[in-house]
Specification:
three-stranded antiparallel β-sheet; alpha+beta; Tetrahydropterin Synthase, Chain A; 8 helices; 4 domains; 8 strands
Length: about 250
């Protein structure tokens, strides 16, 4: 009788102490409240009266940093939110050194985000968000590494600025586009003038060059009854007529 009861108790304790740790988990084992070891993936066993196992997920975890109001270095209010990616690299530290490590990481990232935004101007925030996000990651990672947490990345998602600032930035961008258009047009006109000068020099060096160019231009004109076209005689013809008149007078 007693032997049967003893066997039953052993079976109950034996089966009740079986624990399955998944591949993406680690089991932190406490014996009478003291850390004993970290169970690896697979089938494990604990003494259910004296031991306790805490499962820790080792996969990358994503947490949203809610939208925050912050003031930039040049006193512009902005609304900004971010996403934090982290994973546990030391399960025992994540359990023993910090309470609710997910919440702790999110709050530390929030504080680091505010501090970073307050140290940069709006133009820098808009143009160098990747660099700012990297700086925030390094600041958070420096603290969380002691908790057994590795922050893999922090991404700044949305940056909201006041409507008046948006209008001012749009006006500035339009003025910049107009300035570039004027510069490009001026450069094009300067290049065209330079090419015309070269063409004139080449035509001037060739006998009858200007005349041929004039005839080519006249050939491209479309007749229009409402317009009057005046044809200029080539210089060579005028010179020939002068020479002929001089010859006739000499005779």
């Amino acid at each position: 009788m007693w032997f049967t009861i003893l066997i039953f108790i052993i079976v109950v304790f034996g089966l009740g102490g079986l624990r399955v740790v998944n591949q993406y988990e680690r089991g932190v084992t406490l014996t009478l409240g003291k850390y004993t070891k970290t169970m690896q993936p697979g089938l494990n066993w604990i003494f259910i009266i004296f031991q306790k196992m805490i499962l820790v997920d080792m996969r990358i975890t994503t947490i949203d940093v809610p939208r925050q109001e912050a003031i930039t270095k040049d006193n512009v209010p902005v609304g900004i939110n971010a996403v934090v990616y982290f994973k546990v690299v030391a399960a025992e530290d994540a359990v023993l050194k910090v309470q609710r490590y997910t919440y702790a990481v999110s709050q530390y990232a929030l504080a680091a985000l505010r501090d970073s935004i307050g140290g940069v101007e709006l133009d820098t925030l808009l143009t160098e968000r990747e660099k700012i996000a990297t700086d925030i990651k390094q600041a958070v990672d420096t603290e969380t590494v002691t908790w057994g947490i590795d922050v893999t990345a922090i991404k700044i998602q949305d940056i909201e600025i006041p409507a008046s600032m948006k209008r001012a930035m749009a006006a500035q961008a339009e003025a910049e586009r107009e300035r570039r258009a004027i510069i490009i047009k001026a450069e094009g006109e300067a290049k065209a003038a330079e090419n015309l000068q070269k063409a004139a020099q080449i035509l001037g060096s060739v006998p009858g060059g200007f005349s041929l160019r004039t005839l080519e231009t006249i050939d491209k004109l479309q007749p229009d009854p409402s317009k009057t076209i005046i044809f200029a005689l080539p210089v060579e013809i005028m010179e020939g007529l002068k020479s002929l008149a001089s010859t006739i007078k000499s005779k």
